Amino acid sequence: MTAPRVSVLVTCYNHIKYLPACLESLSAQSFDSWEAVVIDDGSTDGTRDWLRTAGQGEPWRLVFNERNLGTYGSLNVGLELAQGEFVAVFNDDDLWAPTKLERQVAFMDSHPEVGLVHTDGGFIDGDGRPVQGSPLGFEFPRTETGDVVLALMRANKIIASAALFRASCVAEVGKFNENYFGSGDWEMWLRIAERWHVGFVDEPLTYYRVHGENASHKLDRIWQDDQRLREWIAKRAETYSGRFPEPDLKAAVSHNWACLGTVRTLNGDPARGREAYVRSWQADRRRFKSLLRWAATFLPRSVFRRTL
Known about the structure:
Blueprint: E1 6-12, H1 19-27, E2 34-40, H2 47-54, E3 60-64, H3 70-81, E4 86-91, E5 95-96, H4 100-110, E6 114-124, E7 130-131, H5 149-154, E8 163-166, H6 167-173, H7 184-193, E9 197-209, H8 219-236, H9 246-266, H10 270-283, H11 289-296, H12 301-307
Parallel strand pairs: 1-2, 1-4, 2-3, 6-9
Antiparallel strand pairs: 4-8, 5-9, 6-7, 6-8
């Protein structure tokens, strides 16, 4: 039996309200050489019973974690089982347009230098209606096709459900880092981007659902993640010298140090926040707002947060 070209890793946790629509959009794909590895991470809302019933006769492999592993632990379980040439991540509350996998696989087939490709898309609400603007504080992430390391140093430019990557990339860079709560995909994308180009399909093919249970609403844990990741980026940036024009690299390094100053301060360590803001200004003396943020770290945390 021929292995499917794409392994779709569907991560599930207490989203029974949205999961059926998610899997319906997977079944509606115009590209048919795929398998689904559906990993439930200890749901308590009826997800497991629904999957056992709905999954009969479907091309899904169901995995029920014995304990809650978190998003990246669940994805790593899926990677161990994946048989496809490509891997796509699909969060259980998001949706795909019917041609999403078709467009991505065609792109990868014509761009062997690309390790990961993502798509444009948009935000939807709990009822599947489009949400305009930046409901989570950012626009739907986009990149150019090419070397996007500097863009990823600045921010996570790839929505997890929009990504498809070569399984061979995992063999070289390793699996997802399970120590992260919500930024492990960002760290993985950076590791891939260090070695391969990243592609972008400029079509709205992925829909990120915004609702009250999004992990991005858990700010304290996200700030802790951001600090860990920003400190990792600061160390990695030393290896990028000569890869990019010096002014562009300095600007990205300065931005990363400034973000690190912010999250250190938000995490209750303003002294080290000030150190990071100084490093930001030293990397790019044009970044005067880092000096202003340095001064703001002497304010109470609640006041500092309102200055951002």
